[in-house]
Amino acid sequence: MSALLKEKLYTPTEYLALEETAEYRSEYVNGLIYQMAGASVRNVDITFNITSKINEKFRGKCRGYASEIKVWVDAVNTFFYPDITVICGEKDFYKNRKDTVINPILLIEVLSKSTKEYDKNDKFLTYQKIETIQEYVLISQNRPAVQQYIKQTDGSWKYLATIGIDSEVTFESVETTLKLEDIYDLVEFDEEPNEKQLRKI
Description:
Layout: E1 3-4, H1 12-21, E2 26-29, E3 32-35, H2 41-57, E4 62-66, E5 70-73, E6 78-80, E7 84-88, E8 100-101, E9 106-111, H3 116-120, H4 122-127, E10 135-140, E11 145-151, E12 157-163, E13 168-171, E14 176-179, H5 180-183, H6 195-198
Parallel strand pairs: 5-8, 9-10
Antiparallel strand pairs: 1-3, 2-3, 2-6, 4-7, 5-6, 7-9, 10-11, 11-12, 13-14
């Protein structure tokens, strides 16, 4: 998780006021404010590729937002900035704020070394508290690998992993399939991953 700014509790109203004038983005977790780290070029490229494809396929129906919109999780008093937020149909805003929504259907995080464990565990548990959420997706930025958690009718979550640049992944919540070569278009990896590395996504 990102760095805690101060050992002080803030109200949601105080946090939102600070965000409006801050030089950096931060997330709010039950009264505490955490400064977010800057995104890597690979993160930016991946989020751009995915949101472009989603918005192209679902023009007039669904909209993907890359990083710039907050999600409010009322059950746990938390504001997050997902890497990608997808909403289908009418947007439901937090207290009529046009920069914060409460009804995402699909949330996507691009993993980094510093945040991947938090994204896989604490953040996923938080996102499950959102009534409208149907799917949570984790994208590796170090190798072509996608992990999905898809909500089932009984409230459980189905896990799927897709590995390899020649593979395809279907986002069930929005019923669309993307090629990993499109998700990772123009993304440069540090090195070619071997089979052992791929198993460690």
